[in-house]
UniProtKB/TrEMBL annotation, chains A, B:
This is Trafficking protein particle complex subunit 6B. It comes from Collichthys lucidus. Its main location: endoplasmic reticulum. Belongs to the TRAPP small subunits family. BET3 subfamily. Keywords: Endoplasmic reticulum, Golgi apparatus, Neurogenesis.
Length: 158, 158
């Protein structure tokens, strides 16, 4: 239970720190989101490198996504993604019914507008992990009722 | 092995972020150290609250310190403190022979001057945890050969 707590608490502090040191304007909010996303990107790159050290080569894109949903997610959030869907044309939707980084906000719709800053880091995390596996992507997140959350991964063909 | 990795990578990113956004002057370095220490303080407060939720009341100060060395340290760093010493007059020295947050720097003396910024967060972490258990303290850290590290806790009598 307390296993992922240090990470979770530190993640909250990072958000506080970044938001405290800046103005509250619209532009600045966008910049803060990018800052969090960039941090996540680099953490994702580092983590995936360590996690895939001894794994076999991935068969295809879907195989990579399954690894993200299982091993990668478990390493960071101590649970797997609950549902993975794809249109088989480069779009994947990862659904987490109880996303840990939203766990400290009240469930329901009350704090929905606070959600983006709690998701930006994780969007970067997934993008960074995929990027180090040679998959370029755009990752966005969507919440309709906390603490459930969907991450949409759009693969960028080169 | 990879269990503490998300926390460790995020911790590194936080240091990069704080140091990147500021000048490199002496005063600024001191301020960055405080920033990290403060973050650690709040994380320590949150963590200890969660960890002690179901534990019995502590007998005395030494009992509290043992909890920090075992349960608290294991929660954050996946290992216990290797050695705890005290002069029985309010000074405790916690020695970690393989401190995780120094693990990504080369062992030995080469990067010694980089060590303080990798220790500040943890000093705050211990101070925050103790503070929430009603023990006021000053926590400093000392490295002679990486990745071994000593944390000195001076209890402040009120």
């Amino acid at each position: 239970m307390a296993d992922e707590a240090p990470f979770q608490f530190l993640h909250n502090e990072v958000i506080q720190y970044i938001y405290k040191s800046a103005d509250s304007g619209e532009t600045e909010n966008g910049r803060n989101i990018s800052r969090l996303e960039n941090m996540g990107f680099r953490v994702g790159q580092g983590l995936i490198e360590r996690l895939t050290k001894d794994t076999a080569r991935f068969k295809d894109e879907l195989d990579v996504m399954k690894f993200i949903c299982k091993d990668f997610w478990t390493c960071v959030f101590k649970k797997q993604i609950d549902n993975l869907r794809t249109n088989h044309q480069g779009i994947y939707v990862l659904q987490d019914n109880k996303f840990r980084l939203l766990g400290q906000l009240s469930a329901g719709k009350q704090y929905l507008e606070q959600a983006p800053k709690y998701l930006a880091f994780t969007c970067g995390l997934v993008r960074g992990a995929l990027s180090n596996l040679g998959v370029k992507s755009i990752v966005t997140a969507e919440v309709s009722i906390m603490p459930a959350c969907k991450f949409q991964v759009m693969i960028q063909k080169t």
